[in-house]
Amino acid sequence: MQTKDTSLTEQELRKSVSDILKKGNFPVMYILKDKVAVECDDVIEWGQWMSAIPNNKRVGMTEMNQYKVSTVFLGTPHGFSKSMRALFFETMVFDDGKDIYCKRSSTWDKAEAQHKKAIGFVLDKISKESE
Q1: Which of 17, 63, 114, 126 could form a cystine bridge with 91, CB 3.0-4.6 A?
Q2: What is the pTM of this model?
Q3: Residue 89 forms beta bridges with which residues?
Q4: Which spans in the chain are helix H?
Q5: Which of 67, 117, 71, 72 is closest to 94 using CA atoms?
Q6: How large is the C-alpha radius of gyration of the chain?
Q7: Around 13, how many Cα atoms within 13 Å sit in the side-chain half-sphere?
Q8: Is the alpha carbon torsion for 40, 42, 43, 46 positive or negative?
Q9: Dist CA 91 CA 116 (whole Å)
Q10: Which has the closest alpha carbon to 111: 48, 53, 61, 54?
Q11: Nearest CA-CA partner of 22 in 43, 46, 49
Q12: Alpha-carbon span 91 to 102, nearest angstrom
C-alpha cells in the first residue's frame, strides 16, 4: 500500500496561512520599517522578524531599583486611540515582576514619549517611597 505525501511546501504553507489571515480569522500582522508599522501578510517573515535578535522591536528598557520600564512594538494592533489610530506599541512598568502600569501608543515617536512618561511615573514612586 502506497501512502501519499500530503505535506505542504513552504510556498504552499505561506499561501494557506495568508488565505486564513485574509478571511479575518486572525489579527493582521505588522513589522517595523524605519520605525513605521507596515502590514506583513507573510506569517513566516513576520515570525522571523518578531523573533529576530538583536531585538528590533524594543523602543526602550529602563531599570530603576526594583522597577523596569519596557516599551515594545507588539506586531499586531491592540486596540485604537481616540483618533482611531491602531495601537502598535506598549509601555509597561513592572515592580519586582508585577505589572503596575500599561499604556499603548500608535507610533514609534509616541512610544518613546510614553516611555519617558513612564520613567517619570517610576521616579515619582521612588521619591514617595523614600519620604
Answers
A1: 114
A2: 0.76
A3: 73, 105
A4: 10-22, 43-50, 108-129
A5: 67
A6: 19
A7: 8
A8: negative
A9: 10
A10: 61
A11: 43
A12: 6
Instruction: Supply 101's cell numbers.
Output: 502600569
Give dist(CA 56, CA 50) in Å, integer: 8
Amino acid at 95: D
Distance between CA atoms of residues 92 and 108, nearest Å: 15
C-alpha cell at 99: 505589572
Arithmetic mean of pLDDT, 109-130: 94
Q: What is the pLDDT of residues 55-114, one digit of tens each?
A: 689 999 999 999 999 999 999 888 776 777 888 999 999 999 899 999 999 999 999 999
